[in-house]
UniProtKB/TrEMBL annotation:
The keyword Repeat does not apply. The keyword Transmembrane does not apply. GO terms for molecular function: UDP-glycosyltransferase activity. Gene3D superfamilies: Glycogen Phosphorylase B. It comes from Eucalyptus globulus. SUPFAM superfamilies: UDP-Glycosyltransferase/glycogen phosphorylase (SSF53756). Belongs to the UDP-glycosyltransferase family. Signal peptide: none annotated. Its EC number is 2.4.1.-. This is Glycosyltransferase.
Amino acid sequence: MGAVTPDAFVRVAIKPQPAGEAPSQVPAPQRYTEAVSSSPVMEKADKCHVVMYPSPGRAHLNSLVELAQFLLRHHSCLSVTVLISSPPHLLPVITPYISSVSSANPSIAFLHLPSVSLPPSLSTAPTGFSDNPAMYFEFARLNNPNLHQALSEMLSASKPSQKPKALVIDFYYSSAAEVTAALHLPTYYFHPAGTNPLAAFLYLPTLHKLTTTSLKDLDGNVDIPGVPPIPAKHMPSRMLDRSSRIYGHFLETSTRLAESAGLICNTFEAIEPRAVKAISQGLCVPDGRTPPVYCIGPLVVANDHISRGDCLSWLDSQPSRSVLFMSFGSMGVFSSKQLTEIAHALERSGVRFLWVVRNPPPDDEIWRNLAIKSEDDPGMDAIFPPGFTERTKERGLVLKSWAPQVAVLNHDSVGGFVSHCGWNSVMEALWASVPVIVWPLFAEQKLIRAYLAWDLKLVLSVAESEGGFVTRDEFAGRVTELMCSEKGREVRERMAEMRNAAREALSEGGSSRVAMAKLVDSFKSGMMREEE
């Protein structure tokens, strides 16, 4: 990549697009300093400027933007710039979202970094990042020169309110710490998945020293301070094989977590007291210092701008607490065989359901053959048991790909939730006091399941085979248990109690509000770890 001039760094204001229209061309760029000089928000002398730097993709951008919105809701003294480093093929996915946020939140600006040359595996494949997570780390390193130039320009701004006090990054962009160290800018990590997984990440360097065997080859449980014993094979999937490239990235990032100015967590102390205590006492980093942990959650962003779609209208016609909502995240996909088994289970259970379903993965042989025969998307009816849709049409609705999850969970008709055990989804269900069946699929979800289902007994869980398959008998049994049994009622009561604890944490003087105030004070101080 050639030399990059300051003019290449732009703060882009994207106008909202009318519904149904494609995003327009990005407006003519401005230098960052030119853009902020005309901003009434950044002109205010008492503003504390924080930069957030998400890794590519809508989900990672969402997480940090929601953090920004959450902080700004409680601390108007902040202003936030979000750095966008997504490759060109991902911009159509995020541009409408950026437009919406820009129009609704004048204290959040977006700065697009120049494009970098992508490896061949990413330059043509729109799913390259999800297919090869190691590329997130590689892409971050490619962007470090751009990041350095952008932050340098911000730090040289003439007005103090324009100079950033801190950089907030996510797990995959840990190499940004090399840049911020050179610029003496404090770096904070945002961890959206709770403190049990965070404890595991912090403890990974210690585990690496204790054994030369990969976790996938270990029998028995792994003991991590503050975390219930967990089978080694249920640790976060990217930690399992120490010979893999991704393991090396995770090990490096886990070390950098402990070197940061602070760890921001989407959780609250009452739901994870042991993990929070273990991290805070330094037990997860026995050979070094542990940065402050700020438990400021739960971060639940209301769907204020979501239009009422077909699914919400359908829910309006259903009895109170009668519908089982099923959604498995933006990356949760099942084989054709598993989808058929789920359909059999739903029919057998007799419950009302709203099911968000995605096509099977491209390498699914049954789906691939169906697609070849139809020369198009064959549709879910080709996978479901014959007549399933017709027989369940009075009590079930199947949606392709997406539903407004927060709005659905808060609808009076929803009485249960089946989730992939993503932490954000569990927090959204908790906030709505909806009982949950967890079905972990990847990443740290089995570790979260070990705590929430087996230790805390806050949720129910499916029992899967060694290969991850769940039978119709097993799933139908869990559904009936949640929706129709005394055990399900007890889970609902425990969820309601924890919901009350969450709301107390976010009330005036609550633990999360106190942690948030401490975090903002830390931002304002602009102090590096070694200066503290």
